[in-house]
Design goal:
It is a single chain. With 425 residues, the chain is α/β, with parallel strands linked by helices. Helices cover 30% and strands 21% of the residues. The protein is built from twelve helices and 20 strands. The strands form five sheets. Strands 9-6-5-4-3-2-1-10 form an eight-stranded parallel beta sheet. It binds alpha-D-galactopyranose.
């Protein structure tokens, strides 16, 4: 610089050095600001993921903290051969309790060396080699609900760790969050994941506390709408400071939320309890309603010990097609009377799904005269127009034809069961 050459006395050199240091410092700050601005400008949830509701398996509902790498590998082996993987259940999610009790000296999150001696990268490789995707659980608070290290303050570092392990799905819980603001906290992890750069589905598990459907569309790909599911059809369970909810209770809590869901951003009414002990009719009703809700289908039962009845429910391709329909419109309750609810879900190509849910213990006879019913969905702007259009009816559980919409539908529906139909144009 000419300016530099003009100074040759000691004082001038010192001033010059000082000036040059200041410039360097200033340049560094400027550079940092530019990088920060770029990261902010580009920080977004990974695009193009979860265009239909994610499907997979999660360890929590059945195994809670009793997990290790053998269980996860054996679960994958079972799912690769029992029809689950091929039906679409590809995300295998390791829930709470995989971590060591403490981070390492550098603050990295590490797996419990006894439960996961081969490490998480090796587990991810194993799952990928079998055609699965690798999911993991952690928490936006300082600790997970089971007391393991949470992500608070380590978001960018953990995101890099997860990416290096080949993680494809992160379920991020909400225990021990103190006074943290949910939106800002989840945004920080979203930005961490964006910086790590790997396509990772971001699953917010904030239990609906601060209405994530109002703010999470650009942050995550799915968000829990309620507290935890409980393994019963129609009950709740009081843990003292919190409650968990049976299938019907969770279903009722979905009221008013459907307009917030769509491709890439789903309401999550929690994982499935199918196969964990409910009666078969209740399992069928639970599964059907989750499909009508376009819910993520995350199985939560023991993949190595599953009855044929449970397997047939979980892998029913026609029911899954309702859930995975590319239109991505959540179904809605059309009518409710005497404990019998009729739900409709518009499907791509002009078809509809219809489910009649009998919430009662006793059977009910239902009659539905199509020509007198106005099935119009304000959200998708679709009108079934039964007066001018005849649909063929397919029973999605018996797999048989159920006539057409020209005739009055009459059906006996056992207690805690459903009639699930596809109306084909
Ligand atoms: C919360 C979540 C559950 C499960 C547990 C693990 O309760 O809602 O789905 O992940 O934490 O501790």
């Amino acid at each position: 610089m000419a300016f530099v050459r003009d100074f040759d006395d000691k004082t001038g050199s010192r001033e010059l050095l000082y000036f040059s240091d200041t410039m360097k410092h200033f340049t560094k700050i400027l550079l940092a600001l530019v990088i920060f601005a770029c990261v902010q400008a580009h920080a977004q949830k990974y695009p193009g993921l979860a265009l239909t509701p994610p499907m997979g398996w999660n360890s929590w509902n059945k195994f809670a903290g009793n997990i290790n790498e053998d269980l996860i590998r054996q679960t994958a082996d079972a799912m690769a051969t029992n029809g689950m993987r091929d039906a679409g259940y590809v995300y295998i999610v390791v829930d709470d309790c995989w971590e060591a009790k403490e981070r390492d000296k550098l603050g990295n999150i590490v797996a419990d060396p006894e439960k996961f001696p081969s490490g998480m990268k090796a587990l991810g490789d194993y799952l990928h080699a079998k055609g699965f995707k690798f999911g993991i659980h952690n928490c936006a608070g300082t600790k997970t609900c089971a007391g393991f290290p949470g992500g608070r303050g380590h978001e960018f570092q953990d995101a890099l760790t997860y990416a290096s392990w080949g993680v494809d799905f992160l379920k991020y819980d909400w225990c021990e969050h103190g006074t943290a603001n949910s939106q800002e906290t989840y945004k920080t992890m979203r930005d961490g994941l964006a910086t790590a750069g790997r396509p990772i589905v971001f699953s917010l598990c904030e239990w609906g506390d601060t209405k994530p459907w109002l703010w999470a569309k650009d942050i995550g790909h799915l968000w829990r709408t309620t507290g935890d599911i409980y393994n019963c059809f129609d009950c709740d369970y009081d843990h003292g400071t919190w409650k968990s909810w049976g299938v019907l209770k969770i279903l009722d809590m979905q009221d008013g939320l459907r307009q917030y869901a769509g491709p890439g951003h789903w309401n999550d009414p929690d994982m499935l309890e199918v196969g964990n002990g409910m009666a078969v009719n209740e399992e069928r009703a639970h599964f059907s309603m989750w499909c009508m809700l376009a819910a993520p289908l995350i199985a939560g039962n023991d993949m190595q010990n599953m009855s044929d009845a449970t397997r047939e429910i979980l892998t029913n391709p026609e029911a899954i097609a309702v859930d995975q329909d590319t239109l991505g419109v959540q179904g809605y309750k059309y009518s409710a009377k005497d404990g019998v609810e009729i739900w409709f879900k518009p499907l791509a190509g002009g078809d509809w799904a219809m489910t009649i849910l009998n919430r009662n213990q006793d059977a009910k006879t239902v009659s539905f005269d199509w020509k007198n019913e106005a099935v119009t969905d304000n959200l998708s702007k679709r009108d079934a127009e039964f007066s001018g259009t005849t649909y063929n009816l397919q029973n999605l559980w018996t797999k048989q034809s159920a006539g057409t919409t020209k005739d009055i539908l009459s059906a006996d529906i056992p207690g805690h069961d459903v009639l699930m139909l596809r109306l084909k144009k």
